Amino acid sequence: METYSVWNRIYDYIDPIAFTLFDISVHWYGIMYVGAMLIALLIAKAFITYHNERFPISQELLDSFFIWVEIGVILGGRIGYVLIYSPHRWEYLMQPWQMFNPYVNGVFVGISGFSYHGAMIGFVLGAMLFCYFKKQSFWIFMDLSAISVPLGYVLGRIGNFFNHELFGRVIESEGFSRDIGILVNGELRYPSQLFEAFGEGIVVFILLMCLLRYAKKSGTLLVAYGVFYALARFICEYFREADSQMGYFAFGLSMGQILSLVMLVLSVLLGLFIFAQKPISPQKIKQRRKNVR
């Protein structure tokens, strides 16, 4: 009979519910999600303070931008999940307000199911609207976002881990793989949420920091983020179980991998477009910085 370590049985000690307040269960995932947003905002504030030449944005504008894009993230993440992953998508489309209804038969159950790629689309749309109405540089805000988001993303994936969701694939090999596995319904699975936290969060952030001093052209950090994230997500998906309602597609690819390939191609095309643009004159750069302030 196989014996399991404390780590293998860690889900026996982690309750997805952090605490209950007025009969409402507060999940760790919700706490981590809020923490992720705050970390991203604090990192952005640090960059506009200590790298203001690269990101000439005022604190007031950043706070306003944060509100706009967070609305986009919430709407895009939820709608994206419903359209891409939910088997009840047609029911939701008939009653779209139900996408954000946290109650089922009068009982508060929260809202579960958010798509990263949907959230990214919502984020970009929110940023475009903000920059249009506020007359700001879209690319400067996107570069700042690209380098601020990854570490916040780490908390999001840890939240998935604590919430007992998005499990890894069943471990079939012997040796070290079984030592790091997590027991889920009697099966050892890869802790894919933590793999994603490290690969898509920490590694991507380190790579972007290495590029910061070299990627001078506006928009290049955004392109680099898209490429690095797409590659990291594609690799990590090999350790993550595909959504049961989706399964696997051609060549054994998951929907997450397919969307990551789309993101990779779009990022490369965007990079080609940015590098094809003529350099902006110093006079225009000074004028733009005055407008951004």
Observed structural traits:
single chain; 293 residues; mainly alpha; two-stranded antiparallel sheet; 10 helices; globular
How many strand segments?
6
**Principal-axes shape call:** globular
Stretches where pLDDT falls below 50 for ≥5 residues?
Answer: none
**Which bin fits the share of residues in helices?**
55-70%
Radius of gyration, whole Å: 21 Å
Q: From N to C, what is the helix and strand string? A: EEHHHEEHHHEEHHHH
Biggest sheet architecture? 2 strands, antiparallel
Task: Describe what is shown at a glance.
The protein has 293 residues and is mainly α.
Walk me through this protein's architecture:
- 59% of the residues lie in helices and 6% in strands.
- The protein has 293 residues and is mostly helical.
- The protein has a two-stranded antiparallel ribbon with strand order 1-2. Strands 3-4 form a two-stranded antiparallel ribbon. It has a two-stranded antiparallel sheet with strand order 5-6.
- Strand 1 and strand 2 form a beta hairpin.
- The longest helix has 26 residues, at 59-84.
- It is globular, with a radius of gyration of 21 Å.
- The chain starts with 16 loop residues before the first strand and ends with a helix.
- The model has no long low-confidence stretch (mean pLDDT 86).
Secondary-structure topology with pairs:
Layout: E1 17-21, E2 24-27, H1 28-50, H2 59-84, H3 89-94, E3 103-104, E4 107-108, H4 116-134, H5 138-162, H6 176-179, E5 182-184, E6 187-189, H7 192-211, H8 220-236, H9 255-276, H10 282-292
